[in-house]
Amino acid sequence: MLDRNTLLKKAFGVGYFMMLFFAVLGIRLSPVFNFRISHGYNLDVFTHLSDFGKINYNMSLFSRFDWWINIVMFLFFPFAIRSLVAGTRIYKIIIIAIFTSICIELLQYILDVGLADINDVIANTIGASLGSMVIWIFDKFKKEPEFQPG
């Protein structure tokens, strides 16, 4: 159904990027997403990787809520790109996702609307890569010809 309904696909893509824009500016669409109150930056990725990120109140990097939110938010990034620009290659989507994530973190630092964190770039890249893998699997099954006994 979504293959034929281009208006719905475009609306999804535009809506997704508007949501990212609101997140960058710190505009909360719901109190549920009001989890980040600190400002500044964190570029210390090696400490987090060496001891699994004993940072916020002895919580590991993988148990932090914002880590998982960033992964989930960027799971849909490849679908949004594909809905706006059909046929975009997977490696280009991942490169765009990395660049977008770095730009988001730079804007958060420059505008002082959140915590510019290198771990967010890593989480966003993981999310976009997982979403791209789903698209790759769907493309793989879609392109294989159906078996017709004959």
UniProtKB/TrEMBL annotation:
Q: Which InterPro entries match?
A: Teicoplanin_resist-assoc (IPR053150), VanZ-like (IPR006976)
> Mind listing the UniProt keywords for this protein, alphabetically?
Membrane, Transmembrane, Transmembrane helix
Boundaries of each VanZ-like domain copy?
19-138
Q: Does the keyword Transmembrane apply?
A: yes
What highest taxon heads this organism's lineage? Bacteria
**Membrane-spanning residues:** 12-33, 67-85, 90-109, 121-138
This protein's name: VanZ like family protein
Q: Which organism is it from?
A: Arachidicoccus rhizosphaerae
